[in-house]
Description:
By secondary structure, this protein is mainly beta. It has strands at residues 4-7, 10-13, 18-24, 33-39, 45-51, 58-60, 68-73, 78-83, 92-99, 113-114, 118-123. Helix content is 0%, strand content 48%. The strands form two sheets. Strands 2, 4, 5, 6, 9, 10 and 11 form a seven-stranded mixed β-sheet that branches. A four-stranded antiparallel β-sheet has the order 1-3-8-7, with no helix packed on it. The radius of gyration is 13 Å and the shape is globular.
Amino acid sequence: QVQLVESGGGLVQAGGSLRLSCAASGRTFSSYNMGWFRQAPGKERDFVAAISRSGGSTNYADSVKGRFTISRDNAKNTGYLQMNSLKPEDTAVYYCAADRGVGINSAYSAYAYWGQGTQVTVSS
């Protein structure tokens, strides 16, 4: 199993940047694909980005392409989500997730392990 803890959320003005971190416990972080999802009040949890075990493959939701960058440092057991040019519609609780499937996945149901979430609020 792996335990995930997100950090780095906060309040930022539109156009600003934040970097979220996802710290993983255990020695097998590199065995997991990693994803970021977000959930706004009253809405479903939506896919944001995913990265493969080695970091060699990534995938992004259309709404964040060109603004967000997912990355990972397996030596530090940590994943990241760099968010630039933030918009009010990016406001949500952001969750990282881990999955031991074959390829990176944008489906919520594919991820077995989840962090507790970190709030991101973008003011206009």
